[in-house]
Amino acid sequence: MVNKPEQFPYGKIAEIAQIGAAIRLKRRAIGMRQAELAALAGVGARFLSEIENGKPSAQIGRVLQVLRRLGLDLSIRPR
To answer: Where are the beta strands (DSSP E) in the chain?
Structure first.
């Protein structure tokens, strides 16, 4: 059985865990370890791990720092 690569979760975000999943998938796709991304984004490795695991109390400003370093944007639009 061949494992399919996980599909990147582009689109509507309904839960914090989806942001974490997007970060994890992008980080892995570019071959970066958590510690490397954390240092590049100016956040702690523990914080990055919590984001990737969907911790709901993650600070949005720091989450945005990580997204920017990965070349990802977070958008808000009318329903």
So the answer is: none
Please state the pTM of the whole predicted model: 0.77
Using CA atoms, how far apart are residues 48 and 41, in angstroms rounded to an integer? 9
Q: Where do the domains of the chain lie, and which CATH numbers do they carry?
A: 16-69 (1.10.260.40)
User: Per the structure block, which two tokens stand in for 53?
Assistant: 């695991």
CB of 4 closer than 8 Å to CB of 43: no
Q: How far is CA 3 from CA 6, 44, 50, 52, 56, in A?
A: 9, 31, 26, 21, 30
Kindly report, residue by residue over 36-75, the tens digit of the pLDDT.
999 999 999 999 999 999 888 778 888 889 999 999 888 8
